[in-house]
Design goal:
This protein has 15 helices and twelve strands. By secondary structure, it is α+β, with helices and mostly antiparallel strands.
């Protein structure tokens, strides 16, 4: 068999060369040898998340993540977990707006077993009414715990729905309860067949491996899978809000809250690199201006947080104000607006900018200390940015940013017309 040549080569950081391979069925593979320890991080990324769901079928991507740990045609229920546990593997999965991924962090000698099991469940999953009913119950309970009975979860869900409406980011990844209850085995099988295909998958292997052996074993296990015609993605026009949107929730909590979401940039926008620095400059630690003002000087809040997660489409820069019991959400929001305006009027000192850059760079580089961290960075940046080693390009952009550039971007980002606000007041039941 002809040796498969890499589609491209890349360097992860200063000294780890990696390779990307593309197979005939569309499957992509990133291999990054790292012989520092006899371990391997193996991840399977699928370009499907909650934004790829249809109205009335919200939560399917997350439910399927649960089903993937069930039985296959070759392995009965529970055998995947048993074999991985016996091999000493750390196993988990996650689903979000743009993607779903599965990972095994394991000893080098167990890597062939993980490859076999992942290939098997990618195309041979058993999805019957019994399996679906079991996992629907699990997900319903998860939703109740994380959203319906959790003040922070309920407020964040309300914020994203308020900010995005019918946009693909407007419904929760876990799904609406009525949709979860309505899922059938047919719904799940159709979603699985459409999205768990080689041309929708990217494998990431980091650790003590041989590149040629890894490529050949992946070709043996995955090469027979046929590509699928994927559903057309919903076209989304970029429209910025033209006025503030506001909603009040009355929930059984002794602690009022405020959730603010400013429409942020896509992670593919070069300006997104500045958002992490802005978060650090304004909210990063006890001495950050907004934390110091609202928590320590004004004594209106118990906690103040701010930041944005990177998404393929425009997301939100979220600000969370956990109020003192005697503080009304309206007063906390007014104080936040005042203190934010003061911070932007003052600007960022050279000392503060150096500190923020150092902290952000340290946090980024620290996440690469393990094979698991390197693999997650490669998979995430490949799916969201289209460049597996994209974390380092982001670092370079952050190093080059100046205080005037950050201040200009902050004034654009924190435009009150571009925000949505959820006020959480205490209900009588509290």
């Amino acid at each position: 068999m002809t040796r498969l040549a890499p589609e491209r080569s890349f360097v992860f950081g200063p000294g780890l060369p990696g390779s990307t391979f593309r197979f005939q069925n569309g499957l992509r593979l990133h291999v990054l040898p790292d012989h520092a320890a006899p371990v391997v991080a193996f991840q399977s990324w699928f370009s499907v998340g909650s934004r790829h769901e249809r109205a009335g079928k919200t939560g399917l991507a997350h439910l399927l993540e649960h089903l993937m740990f069930g039985a296959t045609k070759r392995h009965p229920l529970g055998e995947f977990d048993r074999l991985m546990e016996e091999a000493g593997a750390e196993v988990n999965a996650a689903t979000w707006l743009d993607w779903t991924f599965y990972y095994e962090n394991l000893p080098r000698d167990a890597f062939p077993l993980a490859l076999e099991l992942e290939a098997d469940r990618m195309r041979s999953l058993v999805i019957g009414e019994r399996e679906v009913a079991t996992e629907k119950e699990v997900v319903e309970n998860e939703r109740r715990m994380r959203v319906d009975d959790d003040v922070d979860g309920a407020a964040e869900e309300a914020l994203w729905q308020l900010a995005f409406g019918r946009h693909p980011y407007g419904h929760p990844t876990i799904g609406w309860l009525e949709d979860i209850r309505g899922f059938t085995a047919r719904d799940c099988r159709e979603f699985y067949e459409a999205h768990y295909a080689p041309n929708a998958a990217t494998l990431v292997v980091v650790g003590d491996v041989d590149v040629d052996e890894t490529v050949e074993r992946v070709r043996e296990l995955y090469g027979r899978f046929k590509p699928r015609t994927r559903p057309a993605e919903r076209r989304v026009e970029r429209r910025l809000p033209e006025r503030e949107r506001r909603k009040t929730l009355r929930l059984p909590t002794p602690i009022p809250r405020v959730e603010v979401g400013y429409r942020a940039f896509s992670a593919r926008d070069p300006r997104f690199a500045a958002i992490t620095l802005l978060s650090e400059l304004l909210f990063g630690g006890r001495g950050a201006p907004l934390v110091d003002a609202l928590v320590h000087r004004d004594e209106l809040c118990l906690a103040v947080r701010g930041g944005a997660n990177p998404f393929e489409l425009d997301g939100l820069f979220e600000v969370s104000l956990t109020c003192r019991p005697e503080t009304s959400p309206e007063d906390a929001l007014a104080a936040f607006d005042r203190r934010l305006a003061e911070a932007l009027e003052k600007g960022f000192s050279a000392k503060d900018l150096v500190r923020a850059k150092n902290r952000v760079e340290f946090q980024t580089l620290s996440s690469f200390e393990t094979a698991l961290g390197k693999a997650e960075s490669l998979g995430f940046h490949d799916l969201v940015l289209g460049v597996p080693e994209g974390a380092f390009a982001t670092l370079e952009r952050q190093r080059a940013l100046t205080a005037p550039e950050l201040l200009s971007l902050a004034k654009e980002l924190f435009d009150p017309k571009r925000r949505s606000v959820v006020l959480v007041e205490r209900s009588e039941a509290a």
